[in-house]
Structure to design on (296 residues):
């Protein structure tokens, strides 16, 4: 049986790799790391991979705007979602100690989520890196025992590094939402239970347009879980609206709401319908990290 090839942004050990293992638990797959989000989307569009896993929202940092734009531009399908608990650790070469660390590298979002730790340790300078997992790789490829990285325990285990200080994030209620993407027409089956639908639309330029659009769901008691506005290219100070609702277009109530919405919008597309993910602790143990799904 052919393994599913899955693209993600970052190096091995990144939180996106953890998301791949959660969202594809129980399946055999190969990991395909890419340095940039754009490259991940291109790989899926061009058929070099079967699936892609991308972050779209963090509970502290907010939405990953670049990926919301790519979702529309690349016209791919959202097949599933998962939430990853983000636990940051100060990681260094084996034998290094906290008092010897003078620099720490990581993705700028990760560093911004550990501000209090670095305030307590003003002797450690922080520097941006393209990825959390990649920062550990960089540390381990060198020989500098004064250089640390901020990343997951999975990254420390994968590269054979040591955790100098665990759980250094400012807020333990730190989760990132990830989407599993596939080509249009693909699906991950039809799970029973509640469904969530993600869509994007442009309102007509009339007073109360957004209120009228959202009322299509409110009047039918359909819950709204997210709304995100993004600039509409070529039309200054006009916007696209990304919306998630707790319903499926296969349900009569939701289908009627979608028809109502379509009458009030210039543009409307459904990006995917999938099972909503529950929030829970998900930082993997080293054994979890080496489980099914190693890259070939």
């Amino acid at each position: 049986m052919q393994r599913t090839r899955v693209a993600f942004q970052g190096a091995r050990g990144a939180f996106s790799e953890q998301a791949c293992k959660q969202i594809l638990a129980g399946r055999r797959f190969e990991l395909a790391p890419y340095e940039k989000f754009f490259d991940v989307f291109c790989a899926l569009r061009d058929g070099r991979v079967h699936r892609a896993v991308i972050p779209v929202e963090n509970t502290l940092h907010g939405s990953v705007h670049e990926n919301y734009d790519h979702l529309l531009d690349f016209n791919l399908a959202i097949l599933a979602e998962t939430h990853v608990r983000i636990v940051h650790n100060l990681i260094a070469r084996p034998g290094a100690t906290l008092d010897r660390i003078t620099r720490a590298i990581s993705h700028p979002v990760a560093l911004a989520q550990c501000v209090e730790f670095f305030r307590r340790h003003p002797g450690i300078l922080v520097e941006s890196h393209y990825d959390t997992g990649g920062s550990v790789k960089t540390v381990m490829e060198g020989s500098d025992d004064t250089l640390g990285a901020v990343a997951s325990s999975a990254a420390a285990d994968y590269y054979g590094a040591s955790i100098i200080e665990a759980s250094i994030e400012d807020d333990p209620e730190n989760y990132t939402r990830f989407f599993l993407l596939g080509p249009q027409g693909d699906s991950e089956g039809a799970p029973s239970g509640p469904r969530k639908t993600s869509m994007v639309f442009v309102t007509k330029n009339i007073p109360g347009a957004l209120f009228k659009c959202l009322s299509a769901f409110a009047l039918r008691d359909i819950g709204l879980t997210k709304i995100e506005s993004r600039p509409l290219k070529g039309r200054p100070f006009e916007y696209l609206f990304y919306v998630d609702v707790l319903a499926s277009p296969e349900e009569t109530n939701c289908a009627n709401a979608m028809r109502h919405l379509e009458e009030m919008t210039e543009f409307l597309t459904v990006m995917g319908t999938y099972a909503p993910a529950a929030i829970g602790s998900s930082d993997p143990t080293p054994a979890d990290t080496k489980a099914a799904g190693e890259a070939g």
Observations:
- The first helix runs from residue 15 to 23.
- The first strand starts at residue 4 and ends at 9.
